[in-house]
Write a structure and sequence with these properties.
- Helix 1 (6-16) runs antiparallel to helix 4 (60-82) and helix 4 packs across helix 5 (89-107).
- Strands 1-5-4-3-2 form a five-stranded antiparallel β-sheet.
- The longest helix is centred in the N-terminal third of the chain and has 23 residues, at 60-82.
- It is elongated, with a radius of gyration of 20 Å.
- It is α+β, with helices and mostly antiparallel strands.
- It is built from nine helices and five strands, in the order αβααααββαααββα.
- Helix content is 56%, strand content 14%.
């Protein structure tokens, strides 16, 4: 997704390490479909079907931990992408908290369908997933391109000190969040895209979604391709 850093991959990989034990008769296509649905629901919606929790031997409390971690990781990605200054810990924590809250509201509109699953071989299932990408950041980018940042830019000189540049970047993040909340009621979706997600049996006898397959879905849920 969007060029996530290694640190972010490691952080979100915790959400994928909720594997199904291969013991007790293996996995069915219905289990694989339930698993993919459950992983997406807990990461993007913060909810989990009781059958999913039973399948992975987890709890609602652990689902909330996964969800909170997913939102915090997305917030960190945003800061890493758009803020170059070295913020104070207090300022960074504040922005991460506010960005996490923003992402919770965006991801609440996630639209995906886990359509079907089929056995590829003894160690792999293919699960068909269709995603309608959220377009909210396209709308925000349009506002910025049409002058929404003009007033902010006018208050800072072309050549800034480090302190001025840090203050500018913080204000820019706050402006971006304000515009996102403003656009939420008009949130829409791009054309649906369908992909095949694997559920694969590893050498440790656990079933998981390979990281690259998870990231392929993740890259679609919110569209960041604004170029």
């Amino acid at each position: 997704m969007k060029g996530k850093t290694t640190a972010l991959v490691l952080a979100l990989s915790l959400a994928l390490l909720l594997p199904l034990s291969a013991c007790g008769g293996g996995l069915s296509a219905d289990d694989a479909q339930l698993y993919v649905q459950g992983v997406l629901d807990e990461n993007y919606l913060g909810k989990a079907d009781p059958d999913f929790l039973k399948l992975i031997d987890s709890t609602e409390e652990e689902t909330e931990e996964v969800y909170a971690g997913s939102m915090e990781t997305e917030a960190q990605f945003f800061l890493d992408s758009f803020v170059e200054s070295e913020l104070s810990q207090e300022e960074q924590d504040r922005l991460l908290e506010e960005l996490s809250a923003m992402y919770r509201q965006i991801y609440a509109h996630s639209k995906y369908t886990v359509e079907s699953a089929s056995e590829v071989d003894d160690t792999t299932f293919g699960v068909k997933v269709t995603v309608e990408p959220i377009d909210i950041f396209h709308q925000v980018a349009d506002e910025l391109n049409n002058g929404a940042a003009d007033e902010l830019n006018s208050r800072y000189p072309d050549q800034m000190t480090d302190e001025e540049y840090m203050a500018y970047e913080v204000e820019w993040v706050e402006l971006f969040m304000d515009l996102t909340y403003e656009k939420l009621p008009q949130l829409d979706y791009l054309e649906p895209q369908t992909l095949l997600v694997q559920v694969a049996l590893g050498d440790d006898d656990y079933w998981t979604i390979p990281d690259e397959d998870f990231w392929a879905v993740d890259a679609l849920v919110i569209d960041y391709n604004l170029g």
